[in-house]
Amino acid sequence: MKKIGFISLGCPKNLVDSEVMMGELRQSGYEITTDASEADTLVVNTCGFIESAKKESVEAILEAARLKTEGRARRLIVAGCLVERYRDELRAELPEVDAFIGTNQINEITRVCDERTDTRSLPILPIGNQSATYLYDERAPRVLATPAHYAFIKIAEGCDRPCAFCFIPQMRGHFRSRRFGSILKEAQGLAAQGVKELVLVAQDSSRYGEDLGKQDALAHLLRELSHLDGIEWVRVMYTYPTHISDAFLDVLATEPKAVKYLDLPLQHASANVLKLMRRGGTRASLEKLIGRVRERVPGIAIRTTFITGFPGETEEDFGELLNFVRAVEFDRVGVFTYSDEEGTPAFLLPNKVDAKTAKRRRAALMKEQARISGRRNKERLGSTVRVIFEGQAAESDLLWQGRLETQAPDIDGCVLINDAPEDFDPVPGKIINVLITDAHDYDIVGRIVR
Fold this sequence. Notes:
Blueprint: E1 3-8, H1 12-27, E2 31-33, E3 41-46, H2 51-70, E4 75-80, H3 81-93, E5 99-101, H4 109-113, E6 150-154, E7 156-157, H5 168-172, E8 176-177, H6 180-192, E9 197-201, H7 217-225, E10 233-236, H8 246-254, E11 261-263, H9 271-276, H10 283-296, E12 301-308, H11 315-328, E13 332-337, H12 355-378, E14 384-392, E15 400-403, E16 415-419, E17 431-439, E18 444-449
Parallel strand pairs: 1-2, 1-3, 3-4, 4-5, 6-9, 9-10, 11-12, 12-13, 16-18
Antiparallel strand pairs: 7-8, 14-15, 14-17, 15-16, 17-18
Helix pairs in contact: 7-8, 11-12
């Protein structure tokens, strides 16, 4: 049995692609190994979103090539977004790679891993914005790379938004939703495997079903998934601010398993910068939106992301963003410095902001958010909260950890657990009660209570 080693980089959407490829390979008789030095074939699924991600992908490819040269691996496959973006350059500069497959060729993985296939002559299909068709469905086997108690479900692929800083439409193609029944069947299968939390992902989750002619499709899907036996939590990631419907918010407010958590990447608050980003809106319109969300879903946690150093961002623009964060007091915030990406409209904009200024602004924004988050966490002291138990803490083998429903896996803080009843059975995925005894800027600490 030939062994396949996978290196998956980038976002959860990319991870789902890796899981599907691993499932296809295992179904075809290959063994998936976590030890790259033991692999007969290495697959690197790349990210090509921003400069740091591209650099990480290239380094992973070069490391895999070294393992191929020095070790037992006889085949090296490179897949994913970086291939879509730089197919010709990669093919010319990396002769040690046996095959490149784009995001629209996931179902080619078994063929390219077969040593009988002449992979260097295999074309990398350019997808353009309208020619992409690939969508996995419930019939695709998957090997979950997440902990067993949660799983991502990709509900749509591609994006049609015109955001000036983003190359995703060129890498992933036009927006296309999966069929409702396909998602429901996949979720039922994951629940049967013991998955307790479903995390719905897409490049633009809030548009789910529009292309199928369905109104409020995301709300309907979320409600149905929340009724599945065995599932404890259902979470939606990557929603767009202009598509937050009342029907969707009503499901968050009324369905106990639909977690009260909204991932709402806003990118900025200055009307000037938002216009340059081709996103539109103003600080006032965003504050009105957030007010509506909080009014309709009491207790909801709102997570957002911002970009500092976008071309044309002045000190006044950044000051407005900083004041916006202070006024709104988000529960979770991620901040990225602008990455000047060739092929995007923003690449051609004048008035570039130097990297030092962008980093300074990012640090100031994160410092302000840490203050807000720390104060909000301290307000929880003495309260008892519902937590999904995850097992040993990442930062210490002397602690356990879990998450509130308002904490998404991998990107938000966690609940550190330092004590439990003697008869507590530490099974990941169970819902427990934790008494909060301490609080930090992003994590909270507590003990399990009956």
